[in-house]
């Protein structure tokens, strides 16, 4: 019986030990019994005391709030150290407590309060009431922060992005909170705006394509094309940062909360008066504002620009870049060719303000005029000669020489040669001028054969005797009489019976202006004479012989 009582007592005693003795590695309750030498002495029960540095009771940047008699929770790291004291930590207790609280907040997607207290690689450290979290640099603000000094130690809300208790990792964001409140603020400001409203704003940022204007908590984009009716190359031409400007709300996107703004919409549209101020074919002074591959833009007045297409820039320079004809900022005279008010386009002409050089040439150089110019180009079909007015005329192969083939005659010319020619045709519409070099001395063949026609009898001089016939000359024009045409009588068709220098009467059988040759025949002359004699002195019906008729004809010719 006594034994049983002892066992029960021992069991009860052990139970009381287990109940009152805290487990190492757990959070326990204790009471502050003294504060000395910067430490708080805490009784954690079962006659166990431990010491905690006072700074462990302070939030970052604040003084510790602790007094004798306060109940606190601490983390029991060991029941006894070498001095017989419990090893306890307020910081570790706070961390455990904080993790429980933070895990609940993370699950409920709630904000948590904390303070930035240190800087680490890639960001900052944040005290979340006992647990240390990492704040990436990109999550500090909606825009990059150069100096985070003013944010240090400041109690503020954060959003937990990620947490892993096992690894002790917590990642938080301040930016998410700012964006949320900003979105609420934007929604409130946007709710008060309507398309068409005129509002004042402050220029916050300037980019290549426009400027961002703060409308009181919400930014709107003022695109460069909506700043002025005239061409603006860069927004900084007319705006500066922090400047207050009056703008009109052009468009509000309710889904993205984007606001498009305009300044030119508050000014009078110069296009309303374009048709009246710039009638078709009127000439005006303008300034070249931009040059492209296809033409040049010319400003007629601020806000009104027209395009001079490359084809309307010069009468003579056809395949050159517009930048070779005009330069930016140059003042030029232009003619209005077309106006499309709907598309806000004006087509302008530069060459129309100058006279057509082919027209001028036609007036000053009628057909038959002699001109002189430089050989600009030599092609397989002729020569191109530079003429007054920066235009070219062409001498076709067939117009190079009377005597040589064009292919042979062109070999006599080189680029840069100065040559004379006669204007043979000017086609203003096709911008074409035909010239002739061979016509310079006149048409010798036409002059020589002016009174000669088929059937005429002419006297020629023999210049050469050949096997096939004889070469003769008439008024400086060479011709060839074939053997068969030397006589009506076959026995007399011998070239050797003629001598160089002989004068011979021949009949013209053909005048070929193209080949510039006379067709001549002695045989044809004899036949024609015979026919004439028959008609004059007898007929086939009279019974007279041919000899009688020719004798009579010859006798008659002698009288």
Written description of the protein model:
The chain has 559 residues and is α+β, with helices and mostly antiparallel strands. The chain folds into 6 domains: 71 residues, no CATH class; 71 residues, Beta Barrel (OB fold (Dihydrolipoamide Acetyltransferase, E2P)), CATH 2.40.50; 74 residues, Nucleic acid-binding proteins (OB fold (Dihydrolipoamide Acetyltransferase, E2P)), CATH 2.40.50.140; 60 residues, Nucleic acid-binding proteins (OB fold (Dihydrolipoamide Acetyltransferase, E2P), Beta Barrel), CATH 2.40.50; 80 residues, Nucleic acid-binding proteins (OB fold (Dihydrolipoamide Acetyltransferase, E2P)); 93 residues, Nucleic acid-binding proteins (OB fold (Dihydrolipoamide Acetyltransferase, E2P)). Helices cover 19% and strands 38% of the residues. It has 9 helices and 30 strands. The strands form 6 sheets. A 5-stranded antiparallel sheet has the order 3-2-1-4-5. Strand 14 and strand 15 form a beta hairpin. The longest helix has 19 residues. It is rod-shaped. The termini are far apart. The relative contact order is 0.04. The model has no long low-confidence stretch (mean pLDDT 79). InterPro entries: NA-bd_OB-fold, Ribos_protein_bS1-like, Ribosomal_bS1, Ribosomal_protein_S1-like, S1_domain. Keywords: Repeat, Ribonucleoprotein, Ribosomal protein, RNA-binding. One of its GO terms (cellular component) is cytosolic small ribosomal subunit.
């Amino acid at each position: 019986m006594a034994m049983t009582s002892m066992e029960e007592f021992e069991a009860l005693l052990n139970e009381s030990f287990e109940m009152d003795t805290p487990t190492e590695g757990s959070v326990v309750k204790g009471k502050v019994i003294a504060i000395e030498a910067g430490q708080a002495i805490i009784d954690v029960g079962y006659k166990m005391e431990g010491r905690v540095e006072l700074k462990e009771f302070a939030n970052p940047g604040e003084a510790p709030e602790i007094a004798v008699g306060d109940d606190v929770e601490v983390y029991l790291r060991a029941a006894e150290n070498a001095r017989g004291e419990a090893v306890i930590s307020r910081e570790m207790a706070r961390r455990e407590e904080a993790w429980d609280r933070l895990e609940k907040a993370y699950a409920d997607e709630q904000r948590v309060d904390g303070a930035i207290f240190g800087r680490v690689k890639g960001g900052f450290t944040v005290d979340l009431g006992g647990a240390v979290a990492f704040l990436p640099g990109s999550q500090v603000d909606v825009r990059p922060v150069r100096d985070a000094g003013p944010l240090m130690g400041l109690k503020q809300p954060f959003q937990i992005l990620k947490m892993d208790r096992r690894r002790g990792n917590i990642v938080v964001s301040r930016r998410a909170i700012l964006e949320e409140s900003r979105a609420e603020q934007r929604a409130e400001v946007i709710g008060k705006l309507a398309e068409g409203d005129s509002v004042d704003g402050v220029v916050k940022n300037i980019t290549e394509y426009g400027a961002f204007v703060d409308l009181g908590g919400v930014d709107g984009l003022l695109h460069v094309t909506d700043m002025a009716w005239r061409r603006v190359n860069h927004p900084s031409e007319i705006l500066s940062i922090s400047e207050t400007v009056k703008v009109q709300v052009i468009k509000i996107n309710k889904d993205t909360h984007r606001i498009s703004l305009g300044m030119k919409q508050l000014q009078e549209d110069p296009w309303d008066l374009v048709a009246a101020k710039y009638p078709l074919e009127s000439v005006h002074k303008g300034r070249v504002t931009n040059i492209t591959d296809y033409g040049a833009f010319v400003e007629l007045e601020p806000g009104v620009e027209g395009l001079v297409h490359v084809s309307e820039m010069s009468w003579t320079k056809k395949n050159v870049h517009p930048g070779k004809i005009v330069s930016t900022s140059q003042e030029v005279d232009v003619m209005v060719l077309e106006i499309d008010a709907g598309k806000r386009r004006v087509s302008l002409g530069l060459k129309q303000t100058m006279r057509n050089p082919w027209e001028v040439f036609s007036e000053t150089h009628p057909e038959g005029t002699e001109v002189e110019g430089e050989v600009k180009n030599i092609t397989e079909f002729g020569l191109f000669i530079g003429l007054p007015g920066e235009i070219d005329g062409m001498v076709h192969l067939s117009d190079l020489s009377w005597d040589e083939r064009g292919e042979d005659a062109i070999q006599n010319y080189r680029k840069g040669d100065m040559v004379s020619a006669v204007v043979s045709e000017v086609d203003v519409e096709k911008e074409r001028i035909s010239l002739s070099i061979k016509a310079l001395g006149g048409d010798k063949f036409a002059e020589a054969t002016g009174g000669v026609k088929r059937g005429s009898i002419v006297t020629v001089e023999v210049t050469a005797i050949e096997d096939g016939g004889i070469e003769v000359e008439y008024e400086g024009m060479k011709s060839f009489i074939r053997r068969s045409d030397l006589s009506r009588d076959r026995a007399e068709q011998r070239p050797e019976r003629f001598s160089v220098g002989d004068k011979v009467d021949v009949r013209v059988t053909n005048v070929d202006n193209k080949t510039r040759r006379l067709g001549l025949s002695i045989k044809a002359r004899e036949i024609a004479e015979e026919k004439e004699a028959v008609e004059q002195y007898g007929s086939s019906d009279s019974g007279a012989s041919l000899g009688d008729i020719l004798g009579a004809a010859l006798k008659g010719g002698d009288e």
